[in-house]
Amino acid sequence: MAHIDDPETRRANVSYIKSSMNEPLLEREVEFELARAWREDSCEKSLHLLVRSYTRLVVSSASRYRNYGLPIGDLIQEGNVGLMQAAARFEPEREIRFSTYANWWIRSAIQDYVLRNWSIVRTGTTAAQKSLFFNLRRLRAKIQQASETLSPEEQRERIATELGVPLKDVEAMEQRMSGADQSLNATIGEKGEDEWMEMLSDERPTPETIVTGMRDAETRSKWLKEALSELSPREQTIIERRRLVDDGATLEELGVVLGVSKERVRQLEHRALLKLKQHISRNVDRSSDLYSEV
Length: 294
Prior knowledge:
By secondary structure, the chain is mainly α. The protein has helices at 7-21, 28-41, 44-52, 55-63, 72-89, 98-117, 127-146, 152-163, 167-178, 207-228, 233-243, 251-258, 262-283.
């Protein structure tokens, strides 16, 4: 994704960076005193002093992520959000320096921003994927420098081992990071007038299909309700808790609820399914319209 800084913005960024680096660091006692004043008395002046003294941490962290093609000003802004979050959650009684605590929040805020804006395709949704995204290039360079005889596949295996991720994740991330986003408005061929967008097919269901599906679902629901009414209360409980929910109960769990053995629950379930199939066979032309084979 393209990001452009105008001259005025660049000057403002340079000025902010210089002022941040000139802010004096706080002594441990002063740092804790300001944090307590904000936490216990909601003293905004103390909060501002605490945050301003550590904007240099934001600048330092933001500088490490400049190679992802995002404006340094935006990275600093996101880092400041993380710094404010750290100040809001900091607990001085834990005897941890604020700089140590804030570093994690700053880095996390900047990384989230990079992942959201580096590509229009969402990248790195889990902690392991984030680690892979931000460490892949560094580890690959380190491994290549240590051993020039390793094949690309062996290098990927080492990266996967070191980061504790599947090999397929390393391969997918390499492929994702090797290509840039392309506009759907780009023309096809050098002299083409058609755009890539015009070649995309709409695979969404038609309105007629949607309406038909809704009606079919209502009909299936009616059939199933009628079939369930022929079951005993125990059989209904078993079918509803075992077959009609995403995370169905186990035979053992239902045995505890119904006060019977696990094997007895299995027998009752089998009998209930036979009753349902018999009901469907009597009242529906094609039983496959309601359910797949159990």
